[in-house]
Amino acid sequence: MYFKELAILFLDIKKGLYKISTYYKVEGIINNRLSLFFSYKISDIKPSFIKFWLSSIDDVGSKSKKHYLNILNQIFKLALDDDLLSKNPCENIKIIYFKPKINPFNSFEVNQILEKSLNYNYKFQIFLKIGFYTGMRTGEILALKIKEIDLEKRIIYINSTRSRFGEGAPKTFYSIRKIPIFNILYTDLKNFVLSNKNNTYLFETQYNKPYRDDFVFCKFYKQILKDLSLSYRRPYTMRHTFATNFLLNSNLSPLELSKILGHSSPEMVYKVYVKYIDDLKDNFKRDIQIYKI
Questions:
Q1: What span, in angstroms and rounded, lies between the C-alpha atoms of 83 and 91?
Q2: Does 91 reside within a domain?
Q3: Would you say residue 192 has pLDDT above 50?
Q4: CB-based burial, 116-155: b 16+ in 10 Å, e otherwise
C-alpha cells in the first residue's frame, strides 16, 4: 500500500471523530507537509527518511514539527493495526529543539513591494500597508471592523482575529490591545475607511462578507515577490519586518514594541527581535552625544 492511500483512509476514519476545524487543519498538514511520502510504499519509508524530512523543514519551530510527526505516527499506527507493517518507523524519533530564524524584509524591499502593489487592487495596497505599518497579525487585519478604527484619536482597537474556521478572540489576552496609527499610514487608511464607512468590516468581499482567510491577498502577495525576485516569505513576515525595522531605527523601546505587538512582556521581543538586530550590528555608532546640553 502506498502512503497516500493510507493517509486518505486515515482522514476518512477521523472525519467523524474530529471537530471540523481540527479535521481541516490535519488535512492541510497531510496535504502540505506529508505529501513528500505520497508516492512511497509504506514499507519503504524508514526512520532515516523521516529524520531527513524533519531536518529539511526549516520554516517552523520544534512545536510544529512535533505536531507533524504525531500525525505521521498516527497514520503508521493504522498500518500496524491492519498488519501492514511490523514496526512503526516513527517510533523512537525525537524532535531536536529548533526555532526558525526570522527573515524580515529590509526597508528597500518594503518600498519595492509597496510600489509594486500600486498595480493591484487598492484594497490589497491597504492590506499591505496595514501589515507593514502596524505589525498586526494577518488574522487581526481581516477581523478589523470600521468601528474599531478611531481616526480622531488615531488608534486601532484590536479585539478579534479571523481564520478559515471563523472569528474568535485574538491569540492571547494581551493580543487585545490598542495601537497607534502612524502618520505614514493615516491618510491612506482614512481615505479607505471613509470610502467604506457603510461596511461592518474594513475588508469585505463583493458579497459584503468578511474574508474567511488571506488566500486572495496571498495570491497577489506571492506574485509581487516573484516579480521582484524576492525569496518567498509568508505574509506574517510583515509583522517581523515592522518589529525589526522599528528597533533598528530606535523608534521604540522593546517594552513599547511588545505592547503594540500584543506580547505579555518584552521577553519575546528580546528573544526574537533584539537578538536578530544584535547579529546585524557589528559596528556601533561612536559619534553620539550621551549627555546633551
A1: 16
A2: no
A3: yes
A4: bbeebeebbbbbbbbbbbbbbbbbbbbbbebebbeeeebe
What is the domain extent for residue 188? Answer: 107-280
Task: Tell me phi and psi for residue 88, to 5 degrees.
Answer: -80, 120
**Share above pLDDT 70 across residues of the chain, in percent, rounded to a whole number:** 91
**Among 267, 258, 217, CA closest to 117:** 217
Q: Three-state secondary structure along 111-150?
A: HHHHHHHHHCCHHHHHHHHHHHHHCCCHHHHHHCEHHHEE
Average pLDDT of the residues in 36-40? 94
Alpha carbon 140 to chain centroid, angstroms: 11
Q: Please tell me whether residues 165 and 199 are part of one structural domain.
A: yes
Our measurement of the distance from residue 61's CA atom to the centroid of its chain's CA atoms, rounded to an integer in Å, reads 13
CATH of the domain at 13: 1.10.150.130
Distance CA 164, CA 214 (A): 9
Report residue 89 as a C-alpha cell.
518507523
What's the confidence (pLDDT) of residue 115? 97
Q: How far is residue 195's CA from residue 67's CA, in Å, rounded to a whole number?
A: 44
Residues 125, 13 share a domain: no
pLDDT score of 176 more than 60: yes
